[in-house]
Structures are given as structure tokens and as C-alpha cells.
Amino acid sequence: MSLDILQLLLLFIAGVFGGILNSIAGGGSFITFPALIFVGVPPIVANATNTFASCAGYLSGSFAFRRQILIDRANLPKIITLSILGGFSGSLLLIYTSEQQFLYAVPWLLLAATLLFIFGEKANLALQQHSKDSDQHSGFIALFLALFLFSVGIFGGFFNAGLGVIGLSYLAIAGYRDINLMNGLKLLISTCASAMAIVIFIFSDLIQWYSGIAVMVGTLTGGYVAAHLSQRVPQIIVRRFVIFSSVSITLYFFYSTYL
Q1: What is the DSSP letter of 74?
Q2: In 3D, which of 248, 209, 201 has the Cα closest to residue 36?
Q3: At what angle do helices 76-95 and 138-158 cross, to 10 degrees?
Q4: 51, 89, 161 from 93: Cα distances, Å
Q5: Which of 59, 138, 189, 254 falls between 20 and 30 A from 198, CA-CA?
Q6: CA 157 to CA 83: how far, in whole Å?
């Protein structure tokens, strides 16, 4: 499939907005994934391409937070290994999912990511309190956290949108409190899961390179712009915009898929 200049420009602009949202509040894939669908990229290829485009931002962000990440060096082998294994499993699941099955799953995946974005903080607080009340079951909690992290990787390998929100949910439940460390580890988890998935997608010829590069360049540009805007724009405004756009996009996909 060939893309004309206007479509590539649209994908670049979507990438810019996605990069800004990712840097300030998260949720950039709520913009970039639908944009790929809009220009005619098939759903599974659009998902794989969006994963490719997003990974550059994850990687650069991880590098920027490298000092914070190294504070938790004792847990890094576990985090990296489970994220990679999850990403590998999720990407294989995507490959063996038919286009029709994935199309039917997309609205539900978007709904899950949207609800996590809206209610994730409250759910995290409740689960944190439960984990404090259950310290005597430390072995069970450790297993639960390992499976949770593995599941985060699976989600990232199968469907990239909302990955950062789910990664933060895992870190909050795991007992992390330093927001800079959490952001760094969130990016590391996203990088590992996405990079593993991209390797599988490349061998499966699922990445639309021109559209992916257009989104990726836009995402990196948006991330750079956000570094200057993040101190000026109230995060509550950005958060409300992400909620509005994600709810609207989710409703659209439910309508177009099931009605």
C-alpha cells in the first residue's frame, strides 16, 4: 500500500500530538493508532506499526531516565526478563489472531486502556492498601506481581495502546513511590516488551515502514516540544483531553465494528 504526501503528513501530525501526550500525561497511542487505521493501514499492521513508531520514544525516554532506573538495579534483571518474555508472547498471540478477530477485539482493548487511564489511580490505591494488609502472604504477592508484569508485557506485545498506563499500575501495586523512578521503569518495561514484539513483527512482515517512520518522527518531535510545554500547560487539561479523545475513539470503534 502506497501513501501519498498528505497521508504521511497526517501521520506525522498525529505523531506530534501523540508524542506530546506521551510526555505530559500518557495516552499518545489513542491518537496514533486510529490515525494509521484512518489512512487505510489494516488493523493488525496498524497495531504493529504503531508499536514500532512508539518504541523510539520509549527508548529515548529510558535513556533520559537511566540514572533513576539504575537506582533499582537489583530488580532490573527480573523486570527486563519478564517484559521481554511477555512481549514475545503477546506478539505471537497477535500473529496467530485473524484480522477479523483482532478487529472485534480492538474496541474492548481500547475500552480497557481508557478505563485504566481514567480509574487507574484509584484502583492502584485500593490494591496498594490490600497488599499492605496482606504482608504475611509475601510469596503469593511476589508470584502475583511476577504474573502481573508478564501480563503487562503480553498486553504490550499484542496491543501497544495504554501500555504505559498499565506499566504504571504494576509499579504502583508493586510498592514503588518515587514518580521519577516509576516513569523510568515504565519506559524500560515498554521498551523491552515493544522491542521484542518488533523483532517478531519484522520477521512476520507486519510493519508498514513509511507510515511507521512518519509517526515515529512526529512522536519524537512531539516529545521534544513537550519538554518545553510541560511546565506551562496544566496537566489536568491535558488529562481531560486524553480522556475525551480516548472515550470518543473507543465509542467510534464500537460503533464501526458492531453496528
Answers
A1: G
A2: 209
A3: 40
A4: 15, 6, 16
A5: 254
A6: 9
Taking residue 124's Cβ as centre, other Cβ atoms within 10 Å add up to 17
More confident residue, 173 or 207: 207
As a residue count, the chain comes to 259
pLDDT bracket for residue 94 (50, 70, 90):
very high
CB atoms within 10 A of CB 123: 15
**Distance, CA of 214 to CA of 53 (rounded, Å):** 8
Alpha-carbon span 229 to 142, nearest angstrom: 39
Alpha helices in the chain (DSSP H): 5-24, 29-38, 43-64, 66-70, 76-95, 99-133, 138-158, 163-173, 179-203, 209-229, 235-258
Residue 48's CB is within 10 A of a number of other CB atoms, namely 29
Close Cβ partners of 161 (under 8 Å, ≥ 6 residues apart): 29, 30, 33, 50, 109, 110, 113
Count of CB atoms within 10 A of residue 167's CB?
28
